[in-house]
Design brief:
This protein has ten helices and ten strands. The chain is an alpha/beta fold. Helix 3 links the parallel strand 2 and strand 3. The chain is elongated, with a radius of gyration of 20 Å.
Length: 289
């Protein structure tokens, strides 16, 4: 039997984004912009969490025993929003999942001329489309990886368009916190991953206290972890605020059955003129989770 993840936190995530999409298209349908929905890790209604080379489950705490509770997923939610988007772009690196995605869309009977399925790495393709002229275009982007695939350079490119509203599932518990060892002795390869996701190396000084003590044997260096889930969340939100027009101040922690945070659902508005309205809507939705 395939191992899947889902459950209450997934339902909350999907419902939250769905409500925003409904409000977004109602507003944009009265404007002259071409507006699109972009799902950067589209896949299909669930994701398997096995290592590519083994049968080992990477994040066993995400496995649910009742996959039938899983909702239709972000792809279906977006396609069924009324009024609809002008265009839908679904990005998925796995070619098999692209085929499954095509089947899902066919079953919904949606106009295929409005839909583009891109079989490519999400970071690569997003960097490409962000270089286009966005003066007459707007979009809502859903970044929903289950790990640390999204690079800060990609997020910066999204912000620079000043036209894209972004929902991001930040890997708070399953990625970042897990890599932050108590003694600060983090492998270089893992430090590089944290550098990529935060876009700077300053996170180490924010998350750790380094002390130099005088002993009988000379100076002794000690490193102490000083950060928790709340401080990691604040640090990342502050990073987003430096590049986006406005960011929701109440990102939602999505917890597992043991009430341990897995992800942080964040919202950032791209366009300065519409940022206040966008964030107001998003914050209202987020506080109801």
């Amino acid at each position: 039997m395939k191992q899947q993840f889902g459950g209450e936190w997934t339902e909350k995530k999907l419902e939250c984004v769905k409500k925003y999409l409904e409000a977004y298209t109602k507003i944009l349908s009265k404007k002259s912009y071409q507006y699109a929905y972009i799902d950067a890790f589209a896949g299909t209604g669930y994701r398997e969490l096995k290592d590519d080379n083994t049968d080992i489950i990477l994040f066993p705490e995400l496995i649910e025993t009742e996959p039938e509770k899983f909702l239709s997923g972000s792809v279906q939610n977006a396609l069924l929003v009324d009024p609809p988007f002008k265009k839908y772009i679904f990005i998925e690196r796995d070619s098999d999942k692209c085929k499954e995605l095509e089947n899902t869309i066919n079953n919904l009977g949606i106009d295929k001329n409005k839909i583009k399925i891109v079989n490519e790495d999400a970071n690569t393709f997003l960097m490409y489309i962000c270089e286009n002229n966005w003066s007459n275009h707007r979009a809502v982007l859903f970044l929903d990886p289950f790990g640390m695939q999204v690079k800060w350079s990609t997020i910066e490119a999204i912000a620079k368009t000043q036209a894209i509203d972004m929902w991001l599932l930040f890997p708070l518990g399953i990625g970042v916190s897990r890599l932050l060892k108590k003694d600060g002795l983090i492998k270089d390869s893992l430090k590089n991953k944290l550098d990529d996701i935060f876009g700077e190396t300053e996170w180490f000084n924010k998350f750790y206290r380094v002390s130099i003590d005088e002993t009988l044997f000379g100076e002794q260096k000690s490193i102490e972890k000083t950060v928790d889930f709340d401080l990691i969340s604040k640090y990342f939100i502050d990073r987003l605020k430096k590049i986006f027009s406005k960011v929701a101040n109440n990102p939602a922690k999505l917890n597992n059955s043991k009430n341990v945070p897995l992800f942080l659902l964040c919202f950032a508005a791209g366009n300065p003129k519409g940022a206040n309205t966008a964030v107001k809507i998003a914050e209202d939705i987020l506080k109801r989770i």
